[in-house]
């Protein structure tokens, strides 16, 4: 079956530090990959996506590249801000699964001044 | 463009009771998916509705049921509530035939005592 593995948190960084959150996956077919962000007390917001190998998704300074050879989709940002503090979820949709999102367990990011 | 809305925001029920949660899709979307997010975990897929029929179901018992209405809004019903049903319930809407982007509502926090 499909699964997503994320690095455990919390990740604590100082403002302007470089961020990497690792994500690897197991899936049948050719999945589409996503990063969602959840701010405290809120639902999930789509942060970025990639639908095929070597695609790079980007949004708000965050980037992730779909690496089929390593089955990875690591999230990066060059300079984090306090406002980036949230929980980040890596997720996939595999073909033929009724558009069912499979999520990782989430990684909490805390950015301090 | 109206986003995904859910009601109620919070709900407290007693074990054995029944509950109905509601979701209005984002305008232009025809598919609704429901997810359960336990504290500290990633969301788990419950089921999806398209054209008013269930179109895929996760590993949840039959006491979790749903409806989709002609205006694409949806309900999630849970019978015989158990303590483990306490969670954040998230509704996501999408357009069937698109590139699987799902947009989430703010969620309903259900507490079962």
Q: Brief description of this entry?
A:
The complex is a heterodimer of chains A (113) and B (113). Chain A has 113 residues and is mostly beta strands.
Index terms:
heterodimer; A: 113 residues; mainly beta; six-stranded mixed sheet; four-stranded antiparallel sheet; 12 strands; 0% helix; globular; B: 113 residues; seven-stranded mixed sheet
Silhouette of chain B: globular
- Greatest contact between two chains: A-B, 24 and 28 residues
Percent of residues in helices of chain A comes to under 10%
Average predicted confidence as pLDDT of chain B: 92
Percent of residues in β-strands of chain B: over 45%
Largest sheet of chain B: 7 strands, mixed
Coarse shape of chain A: globular
Gyration radius from CA atoms of chain A, angstroms: 14 Å
Helix share bin of chain B: under 10%
Notes on the structure:
The complex is a heterodimer of chains A (113) and B (113). In chain A, strand 7 and strand 8 form a beta hairpin. Chain A contains no helices and twelve strands. With 113 residues, chain A is mainly β. In chain A, 40% of the residues are buried. Chain B is built from no helices and eleven strands. Chain B has strands at 5-7, 10-13, 19-24, 31-37, 44-50, 53-57, 64-68, 74-78, 87-94, 103-104, 108-112. In chain B, strands 2, 4, 5, 6, 9, 10 and 11 form a seven-stranded mixed beta sheet that branches. In chain B, strands 1-3-8-7 form a four-stranded antiparallel beta sheet, with no helix packed on it. In chain B, a hairpin with a 2-residue loop joins strand 5 and strand 6 (53-57). The relative contact order of chain B is 0.33. At the A-B interface, strand 5, strand 6, strand 10 and strand 11 of A face strand 4, strand 5, strand 9 and strand 10 of B.
């Amino acid at each position: 079956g499909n699964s997503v593995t994320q690095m455990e948190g919390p990740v604590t960084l100082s403002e302007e530090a470089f961020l990497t959150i690792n994500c690897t996956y197991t899936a049948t077919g050719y999945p589409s990959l996503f990063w969602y962000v959840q701010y405290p007390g809120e639902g999930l917001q789509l942060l970025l996506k990639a639908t095929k190998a070597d695609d790079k998704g980007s949004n708000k300074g965050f980037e992730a590249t779909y690496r089929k050879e390593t089955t990875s989709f690591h999230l990066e940002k060059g300079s984090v801000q306090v406002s980036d503090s949230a929980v980040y979820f890596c997720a996939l949709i595999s073909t033929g699964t009724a558009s069912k999102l499979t999520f990782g367990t989430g990684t909490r990011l805390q950015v301090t001044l | 463009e109206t986003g995904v809305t859910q009601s109620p925001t919070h709900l407290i029920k007693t074990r054995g009771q029944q509950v109905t949660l509601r979701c209005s899709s984002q305008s232009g979307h025809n598919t609704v998916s429901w997810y359960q997010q336990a504290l500290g975990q990633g969301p788990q897929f419950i089921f999806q509705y398209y054209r008013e029929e269930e179109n895929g179901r996760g590993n949840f018992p039959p006491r979790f049921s749903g409806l989709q209405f002609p205006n694409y809004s949806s309900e999630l019903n849970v019978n015989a509530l158990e303590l483990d049903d306490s969670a954040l319930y998230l509704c996501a809407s999408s357009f069937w035939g698109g590139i699987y982007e799902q947009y989430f509502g703010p969620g309903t926090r259900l507490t079962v005592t």
